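Key result, reporting period 2: structure in, sequence out.
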């Protein structure tokens, strides 16, 4: 806001000081030293030179001043704002969004922003008064940006398109919250490189439109990863050309998936697909019962394929080759959790065929866990030539065997409760990189089975940080750089417990809180109530 400062009437000693100052100004105005006679009075007496009346006092001109600006109100909060004095920026009829030289790759970001602000997109042209200019270039971390408001214009620059996009989210949110973007300079970047949402679309069918809405939501929160768990016991939810017989009646077509991927790319969200194996393959087994794992006593645990049967590997590898071509992103999730054979008290006695296969392949000391680890490594070998970064759930990594999981597989840590699962520090101390999906804070399990309760945004905001990987206690801060980020996860164990709309509403504030905590490592300056109120304004 602007202030007008007008000097008021002088009183007492101030009046005398003003009179002296006026005499001095009058004397100096003709170039004579203060107190020296002016040329017009030289040779005359003081009495004859005295003016008949005092000169009029100059009238002060109102001066526009501004207080120092404050940081823009956004979610997540910006990490640095250099305050300045000025009116800030707000959309005006003459404003537009333009591209700086050599920044044509930002055309999509510019068009999106122009539509959101209600101003025209003018392409690659010089920025004028009131304009927003997007520019590629400069130094900085990936996804970083600098946003400057000065001289009635905005400039957003960054070393990559993602960073500039996040700068446009800051501008959009600030305008939505207060109608303007404050004067000064924002310098911003994420604390963690992997930030996102994981959705179980296998056990519950979610429409393409619902998934696209989550992507738009994620983009505005500066989240960059969407995990899609699309194969499980209850369903296989993406059309398949190699094995159409396993696909559920309700599923996403490949055209819908490509539409989802295109929107995700425009919001700088990478989709992380997951075909979980060797457990959670009930939909595959339903069409291929010969792959079912059987115990020595004849039990057939749901979803577990017989990894001693080469046909099990063949069908999973067919699917991996098919879907790695559909999904162009940088990551692939191999699953590997909750393989029932390894949850038995004595896996070798309960599943003797697996024990025999392990010894035949890896030597006399090999156990069933080694066969399972070999399965994970073999699936990794199928995907690795695509150049994708590989991921697997933490309870798919087993210590003390003759076979170890490949070193390039990132740990997706969700629990320490499962058989075979260890606390997070052993993974970290071994040099593993880890993504946090702590089931204590970040698991939204439909129907709340197995003692799960729906997580709240407040609890995440006030208690959780990326260092809190398991339970409620953080790992030592020295491991911070190995913790690559976090995702909030939706699991549909009791799929009918909530509708799509209820899920969207239920995860809204937890996802918002997570976005704050993975972007800015500092303790939030707002209270939970202040944060929640702000989120309602900017989203």
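The corresponding designed sequence is given below.
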């Amino acid at each position: 806001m602007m202030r007008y400062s007008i000097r008021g009437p002088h009183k007492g000693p101030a009046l005398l000081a003003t009179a002296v100052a006026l005499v001095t100004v009058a004397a100096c105005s003709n170039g004579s030293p203060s107190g020296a006679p002016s040329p017009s009075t030289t040779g005359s007496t003081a009495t004859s030179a005295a003016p008949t009346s005092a000169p009029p006092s100059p009238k002060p001109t109102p001066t526009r001043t501004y207080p120092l600006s404050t940081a823009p109100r956004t979610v997540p909060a910006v990490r640095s704002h250099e305050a300045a004095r000025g009116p800030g920026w707000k959309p005006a009829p003459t404003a537009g969004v333009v591209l700086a030289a050599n920044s044509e790759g930002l055309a999509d970001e510019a068009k999106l922003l122009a539509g959101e602000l209600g101003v025209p997109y003018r392409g690659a042209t010089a920025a004028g008064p009131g304009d927003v200019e997007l520019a590629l270039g400069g130094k900085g971390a990936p996804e970083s940006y600098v946003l400057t408001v000065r001289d009635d214009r905005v400039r957003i620059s960054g070393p990559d398109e993602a960073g500039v996009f996040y700068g446009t989210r800051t501008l959009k949110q600030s305008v939505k919250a207060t109608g303007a973007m404050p004067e000064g300079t924002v310098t911003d970047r994420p604390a963690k490189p992997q930030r996102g949402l994981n959705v179980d679309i296998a056990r519950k069918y979610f429409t393409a439109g619902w998934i696209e809405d989550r992507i738009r939501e994620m983009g505005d929160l500066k989240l960059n990863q969407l995990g899609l768990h699309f194969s499980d016991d209850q369903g296989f939810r993406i059309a398949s050309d190699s094995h159409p017989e396993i696909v559920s009646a309700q599923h996403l077509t490949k055209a819908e998936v490509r539409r989802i991927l295109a929107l995700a790319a425009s919001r700088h969200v990478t989709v992380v697909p997951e075909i979980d194996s060797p457990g959670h393959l009930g939909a595959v087994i339903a069409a291929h019962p010969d792959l079912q794992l059987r115990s020595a006593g004849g039990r057939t645990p749901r979803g577990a394929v017989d990894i001693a049967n080469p046909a099990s590997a063949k069908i999973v590898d067919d699917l991996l080759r098919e879907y790695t071509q559909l999904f162009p992103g940088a990551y692939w999730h191999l699953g590997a959790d909750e393989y029932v054979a390894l949850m038995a008290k004595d896996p070798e006695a309960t599943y003797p065929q697996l024990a025999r296969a392990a010894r035949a392949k890896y030597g006399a000391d090999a156990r069933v866990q080694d066969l399972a680890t070999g399965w994970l490594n073999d699936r990794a070998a199928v995907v690795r030539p695509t150049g994708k970064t590989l991921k697997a759930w933490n309870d798919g990594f087993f210590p003390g065997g003759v076979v170890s999981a490949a070193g390039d597989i990132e740990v997706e840590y969700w629990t320490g409760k499962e058989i075979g699962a260890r606390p997070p520090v052993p993974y970290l101390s071994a040099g593993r990189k880890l993504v946090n999906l702590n089931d204590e804070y970040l698991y939204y399990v439909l129907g709340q089975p197995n003692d799960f309760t729906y997580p709240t945004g407040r609890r995440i905001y006030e208690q959780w940080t990326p260092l809190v990987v398991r339970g409620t206690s953080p790992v030592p801060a020295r491991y911070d750089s190995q913790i690559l980020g976090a995702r909030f996860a939706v699991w549909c164990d009791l799929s009918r417990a909530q509708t799509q709309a209820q899920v969207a509403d239920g995860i809204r504030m937890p996802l918002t809180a997570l976005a704050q905590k993975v972007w800015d490592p500092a303790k939030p300056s707002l209270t939970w109530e202040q944060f929640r109120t702000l989120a309602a304004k900017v989203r």
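Residues 343 and 397 are 13 Å apart (CA to CA). The two ends are 25 Å apart (CA to CA). This case is discussed further under Risks and Mitigation.
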